[in-house]
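Why do we care about 3D structure at all? Because function follows from shape, and shape follows, mostly, from sequence. That is the central idea of this module. The next example makes it concrete: a single protein chain, its amino acid sequence, and then its structure expressed as tokens.
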Amino acid sequence: MLSASDIIKRSFDIVLGTVALTVTLPVQVLTGLAIRAVMGSPVLFRQERTGLHGRPFRLVKFRTMRPPEPAKGLVHDEERLTRLGRVLRSTSLDELPTFWNVVRGQMSLVGPRPLPVTYLERYSPEQARRHEVRPGVTGLAQVTGRNAITWAEKFRLDVAYVDGHTLMGDVVILMRTVLSVLKRDGIAAQGSATMPEFVGTSPIASDS
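And the structure:
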């Protein structure tokens, strides 16, 4: 049974998510046309991600990379990420279609970022607690370093959000997100075009 705070948070997501989807529609159309012109089809990137209580859902974003083509040297993110893709990531325009995931109830505006389902078996029990709430378009980890912090730190912040989130706290995170996007902070991990794959945490590292 949903608590009063859950109902308020969901209502907040529906109202603001619908407004955001509507207001950004012209930008999304132009972004889609640019991707089609530069990279061709498909315009959207779809991937199975882990949602509330570990249930999978299909995340929708704008495509920023070319498909892997080993024969052309397009294997790693660095080679596959296009110039347009870098702009979309640095401005977070690639995230705009995820408002549709919010309206559908698969995501929240604020929460731990949804990660690939292949990571499910790699979490420690404590890290897996990040799935006790809906994943978010933005979150505490995203406004505290984004991809410039380690996986262990990201997960620590995710669990801290699970344990202490409030509606006012969500509003603060959303405001901090706007500032972070404008400053283009933490777009990529050091030495990487995006964020290295999470391969699991050793028992010693998970306590740090």
